[in-house]
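Q: Here's a chain of 341 amino acids. Please give me its 3D structure as C-alpha cells.
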Amino acid sequence: MSTHDLDTAPAQTKYTPPPLLDHPHADVILHTPDNVDFRVFKLFLSLASPVFRDMFSLPQPDPTTVTSSLSDADPGEHAAGRTGSMPIIDMTEDHLTLERMLRFYYPGSNPDMTTCDLEGARKLLDAAIKYEMDELRRFVVESITSPRFLEKDPIGVFAIGCHHKIEQVVLAYAKYTLRRHFEDLLSFKPSMTGITVEDYSRLLQYHWRCGVAASGLTSAFEWIGYERQYRFLTCPDCAAGEKGTDTPTWENPPRKWWVEYMKSAGGLLKSRPHGGFATQFSVYNKHLNTGLECKTCRRKAVKDMRDFVQGFDRKIEELTSMVALNITFQGREDHIFFVTT
C-alpha cells in the first residue's frame, strides 16, 4: 500500500508496513495501539531521538517481554506467539503517525504530507515533540504554516500553535487572518477549540491595529512622493479632491477620482488589511474609468494606476509587518512578536 492510500484506506483493510519498515534484519519492534509492528533499527532511532538513545543505553531485560515506558499497554497482548530475541516497544502513536515519523529519518524516504490532514499533522508534531526530534518538529511546523493548511483550517493551525507554544505557527496564522474581515473573526468562539479567550483577544487586537495602520495610508499621502509625477497628482484639468492630511504644501491637490478610490480602499483595509484585496483591479476600475474621462489623465491613468497599486501593496505589507502581536502563553511572560512577510 502506498502512502497515498493510507488516509483513505477502508477500515477493514489490513495495513502492512512497507518493506523499509519491516526489515528482516531489524533489531527492535515498535508495536502500535492499532496492532501494527514496525521492525526497524535501533541505530536510526538513536540518531533521530535522544529519548530512544537513552532508552537503548539502559540495561535490557528479557527481549521477549520488553515493554518500554512509552506506553501502558500489556506486552502479553501482542508478544504471545512471537519467537526470536527482538525487543518489543509499545508505542502510543497509531501506525500512520509512526510510519510518517520513521520515514522522515530513514534514508531515501520522506513522509508524504500531501495526503496528511491537520489532525494527522498534529499527531506527527506531538510525536516529534515527545521524542525530541527537532528536525521533524521543524518539518511539521513548516508544513502546517503553508497555505494548504492555513486556507483549509486556519483556526486549527492557531490552536496547535497556542497548545505547543510555537511562535512560528501563531505568527503564520496571525498574518493569514489579515486576509479575512475583522467582523468574521468576531463571530468565532475560541473556547470551542481549546484556544484561550486571552490569546484570541490578542489576535483581534493585532488585526484591528493592522487595519488602522493600513487604512491610514489612504488619507495621508506623503509616502507616495509628489516627485513621482503621477498624473492623478499633477493633472490641472479634472476635478480636484482633498489633499492628504500630511501633504498640505503640495502644489496641486490629487484628482478627485483617485481620492475616491483611496477612500474606498481605506474602508476595505480597515476591515481586511491585506494589500491583495484593496488593490485589485475590480476595486479601482470604477474610479479609473472616471479618470479616463479626463483628456489629461487618460494619457497615463492606466499605467500610473498599475504602477501605483504595486507600490501601495508593498507599503501595506511593510506597515502591517511592523505591528506587534502580543501573545501570552500559560507559564510564560508576554512575548511581543513581529509578523514579518
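Q: Can you summarize the key feature?
A: The CA atoms of residues 178 and 274 lie 6 Å apart.
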